[in-house]
Design brief:
four-stranded antiparallel sheet; Alpha-Beta Plaits; 2 domains; single chain; alpha+beta
């Protein structure tokens, strides 16, 4: 019987957590839904007073001293989108038209504005290469 009660309690916990996640998603704007979780959390922290916001670990963001974050943007590569990124004080670093992908540095607080564009499908934290310096040793 104890095992059954523990199983039922675990099931209730999972359902409660699932409901919280669902409610969090319902509160997002369409633009926020186009941002990955790490970017949304960084925006939340940047907009809220430090004392009132619980700190959550969200992984590493590559933010330069000007407050621009390195992101990968999934969208058709067009001159209009490139101009829009520049208009938000962003800088395009790489373009991959065949993959509908752009790597850029965009001010953190302007990511939502960029995500509001209908041609932007998703914006995520830029994937960084991981190397193993010991792997190049000759044996």
């Amino acid at each position: 019987m104890a095992g059954c009660a523990a199983s039922e309690e675990a099931s209730i916990t999972v359902r409660t957590e699932s409901l919280q996640v669902s409610q969090d998603r319902k509160g997002r704007s369409p633009a926020q839904a186009k941002l990955d979780a790490r970017l949304r959390a960084a925006l939340e922290r940047a907009r809220a007073p430090q004392a009132d916001t619980p700190q959550r670990r969200t992984g590493t963001l590559d933010i330069d001293r000007d407050g621009k974050v390195l992101v990968d943007i999934q969208a058709p590569v067009t001159t209009e989108l490139i101009a829009a990124i520049a208009g938000l004080d962003g800088v395009v670093i790489l373009r991959f038209p065949a993959y509908e992908s752009i790597r850029a540095r965009v001010p953190l607080l302007k990511l939502e504005t960029l995500a509001e564009r209908s041609d932007v499908k998703f914006i995520r934290t830029a994937e960084q290469a991981i190397t193993n310096p010991g792997a190049s040793e000759v044996r």
